[in-house]
Each structure stands twice: as C-alpha cells, then as structure tokens.
Design a protein that fits this description.
heterodimer; A: 112 residues; mainly beta; 5-stranded antiparallel beta sheet; 11 strands; 54% strand; globular; B: mainly beta; 7-stranded mixed beta sheet; 50% strand
C-alpha cells in the first residue's frame, strides 16, 4: 500500500462546476498537507498549505484535512478552463521544508 | 525576483552514461531538494541539501548523488543510467529557518535515456 493514495483520473467538468479532489494516507505522522498544481511541462506550483486538521480557504479554493480519517480534500468553486491542470497532494511529518510525499496526481479538464 | 531555475531543460542520454543536472535556488533560499517524477506519477523525493551536506535521502540507489555549492546552487549526478531513469527531474528550494516555509519548484529537466 502506498503512503499516499489519490483518486484516479482523469476528471472532466463543465465550466462553473464545483470540483472535489481527494487523497488518503496511511502514515499518521503526517502533519503538514499541501496541494500543488502542475501545468503541462511545468514544475508544481503550491496552491494550498495547511497544518493538522481543519479547513483553509483562499479565493475559489478550500482545503480540508481530517486527520482522524487520514483524508484530505481540495475543493474548487466556479471552476475555470484555466484550472485545467494536474493536481498533486503532498504531505510531510516535519514541516513543509522537508521531504514531501506526493500522491500520483489527478488531471482535471474544465470544459468551456 | 528569479524563481528556481534548472538546466538543461531537456537531455537525451544512452544507457550506461552519466548525467549532471543543475539547479539555482530562489533568491534567499538555502535548502535544495531533488525529486524524480516519472510520467503519470507524482514526484518522488531523492535527497535534500543544506549547508553543503546531504541532510535527508529518499529510497534511491547510490548511483544518484548530489552536491551543494557555497552559493546554495546544487547539482544532481546520476551514474550508469538505466532506461528507468527517464523522468522529469525537479529541484525545489526553501529557506530552512523560516517557520511554515514551503518548497518552490523549478520547471524541471526532462531526461530521456535510450
């Protein structure tokens, strides 16, 4: 079993839809949770960063962490074609500066 | 402010050869991490350098080695290349002593081993 599992894709939604992306993990030591967005042929770009359980909102993006269930989610409201990319969850036990363990990534396509 | 830069952007090598990839961290950053991203997979941690020392290492063989220079730039060396080493190699930088610091990724070097 991989340490981090991410819902398989690809995912295609119409413009304006609410998108839910999810990851589960097995290592209870993970404390810091991140979502990265990666456009084709580019490096990952940090979207959201949360510590421990709870919610965090930034514009159209909301990250949720449920440590009791070992489950994290990223919600995208009013999705736009420019949101089309691969989304990677990542986590680490000891600060976002240290080794990140990533999920496989899910490719999202937002249709105009 | 230049972000993380990597060179070269693309590289083609044959099995058994050696390759060196380079990374310049974001201005003000002192820590460099390297990741390997195979096609359709998430990045996998190779190692991290801080103060010119390898501080943390992932599950990669000794064929993968690195170096950090006094100006914080870094190199990743891979010896005896295998077909399976074909991947996007990502460099990420951060500042060690900033609370809540996260890693900023460069665009990567795409390596193809034939």
């Amino acid at each position: 079993q991989k340490e981090v599992e991410q819902d398989p894709g690809p995912l295609s939604v119409p413009e304006g839809a609410i998108v839910s992306l999810n990851c589960t993990y097995s290592n209870s030591a993970f404390q810091y949770f991140m979502w990265y967005r990666q456009y084709s042929r580019k490096g990952p770009e940090l979207l959201m960063y949360t510590y421990s359980s709870g919610n965090k909102e930034d514009g159209r993006f909301t990250a949720q962490v449920d440590k009791s269930s070992k489950y994290i989610s990223l919600f995208i409201r009013d999705s736009q074609p420019s949101d089309s990319a691969t989304y990677l969850c990542a986590m680490t036990p000891s600060g976002a500066n240290s080794k990140l363990t990533f999920g496989k990534g899910i490719t999202l396509s937002v249709r105009p | 402010d230049a972000g993380v830069t990597q060179s070269p952007t693309h590289l083609i090598k044959t099995r058994g050869q050696q390759v060196t990839l380079r990374c310049s961290p974001k201005s003000g950053h002192d820590t460099v991490s390297w990741y390997q991203q195979a096609l359709g997979q998430g990045p996998q941690f190779i190692f991290q350098y801080y103060e010119e020392e390898e501080r943390q290492r992932g599950n990669f063989p000794d064929r993968f080695s690195g170096h950090q220079f006094p100006n914080y730039s870094s190199e990743l060396n891979v010896n005896a290349l295998l077909l399976g080493d074909s991947a996007l190699y990502l460099c990420a930088s951060s500042f060690d002593r900033r609370i809540g610091e996260t890693q900023y990724f460069g665009p990567g070097t795409r390596l193809l081993v034939l």
